[in-house]
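Lecture notes, part 5. Sequence design as translation. It can be helpful to think of inverse folding as translation between two languages: the language of shapes and the language of residues. The source text, in structure tokens, appears below.
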């Protein structure tokens, strides 16, 4: 019980975000004509947070699935860097290792960064619960949103703007709290250059590709500006 209670205390700050964004996704997906089954499948297997909201508009606009998959990879490629410091730790968790890798999110990473285990708790169980509980919460929230979307009868035109508002909020928050300006400036310049070169329909993948390459090259400088990253054993 100590493991469960300790985990719950740590994930409470992210629970409301998962609930409200998950419900918003479910409502939007229902409004796009997809059933609650698809909400559950997307929540459980894709588990890409705000990217799932963007995915809806891409799907309804006729964007090919391979392009959506590529965009999802590039946008969530930061998780690769998140997980590098936890490889040795997760590797000793047996069959849970792949699950721990695939369920690393911005929020669970932030929890683990300053996590101190008190006496009497099982570290591996706590780590697993930190991955499992938010994942299940997100999946349930997506399903609840889809069910609510099926019951709501008023016009929901414009609700998709919540994705735009969400990303603006995230960008402003990251600009204020992130220790390095390099990722934001790199993304802005790449997007602007390729937008003018290729137009609105074809700029995103080249911009994401160049941004990823630049950040890989400059990762040491970014890490230094952030104050360094501790390797987790």
């Amino acid at each position: 019980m100590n493991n469960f209670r300790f985990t719950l205390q740590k994930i409470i700050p992210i629970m409301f975000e998962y609930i409200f964004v998950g419900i918003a996704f479910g409502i939007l997906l229902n409004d796009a004509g997809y059933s609650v089954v698809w909400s559950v499948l997307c929540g459980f297997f894709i588990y890409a947070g705000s990217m799932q909201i963007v995915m809806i508009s891409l799907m309804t606009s006729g964007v090919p699935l391979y392009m959506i998959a590529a965009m999802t990879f590039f946008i969530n490629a930061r998780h690769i860097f998140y997980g590098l410091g936890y490889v040795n730790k997760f590797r000793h968790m047996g069959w849970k290792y792949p699950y721990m890798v695939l369920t690393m999110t911005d929020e669970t990473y932030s929890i683990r960064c300053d996590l101190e285990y008190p006496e009497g708790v099982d570290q591996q169980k706590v780590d697993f619960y930190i991955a499992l509980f938010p994942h299940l919460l997100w999946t349930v929230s997506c399903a609840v949103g889809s069910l609510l979307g099926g019951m709501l009868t008023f016009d929901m035109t414009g609700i998709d703007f919540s994705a735009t508002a969400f990303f603006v909020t995230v960008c402003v928050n990251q600009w204020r709290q992130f220790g390095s300006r390099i990722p934001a400036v790199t993304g802005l310049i790449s997007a602007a250059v390729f937008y003018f070169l290729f137009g609105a329909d074809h700029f995103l993948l080249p911009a994401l590709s160049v941004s990823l390459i630049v950040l890989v090259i400059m990762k040491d400088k970014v890490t230094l500006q952030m104050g360094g990253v501790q390797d987790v054993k």
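The translated text above is only one of many valid answers, since several sequences can fold into similar shapes. The chain has a mean pLDDT of 83.
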